[in-house]
Design a protein that fits this description.
Rossmann fold; methyltransferase; 8 helices; transferase; Class I SAM-dependent methyltransferase
Length: about 220
Amino acid sequence: MAKPRIIETNEGIQGEVTVEIYDQFAKTMRDRGWHEIDNLLKIGMTKGHALEIGPGPGYVGLEWLKKTDDTMVTGCEISPDMLKLAQKNAAEYGFETRTAYVKGTGMTMPFEAETFDNVFSNGSLHEWEDPIAVFNEIARVLKPGGKFCISDMRRDVNPLLKWGIYAITKPKAIRPGYLTSLNAAYTTDELESLLSKSTLKHFSVQKAFFGLTVTGWQ
């Protein structure tokens, strides 16, 4: 049985030093291929305008742009420092014209209804102050038939895997944050319960190697 959730933060990652350390970590995850790009493509997110919730440094959305044509990504991010970093990284990728980063929270996103063809988020679910409100916002901003994919860690992961990942997490300065994030993550049952109370119409929750993934359409 999983231990109770311990809420981590609802303010995102802020402060230049902390953001720089997280950027190093995110680059390592990107370079190892530990992101959801292949899964996004597999479920049919291959075209259109995508919303990324909590993009952080922006690598998931930027890598998705690399593998798709005539697509755009708008990121909704609570941390001003992360917004600056994502914009910098988008410029280094050469994707200034295919990206936009907006300050906001998932609970009250600053977008019109039925704006996006796709919505995805990787690694930020455990920080959402009110997940049901975010799910409702995803339903609101998606076009009819639009797809969504939300992936994150899973609190009830096998302890051997938990500590194995801890041992290889770099830079080492990020390891305490890894543990607090894992303690704030959801189990599959908890997430299914939250989703059932939202206005998302079609969803499925699957356990992954280290986490869980919610996919569906509106």
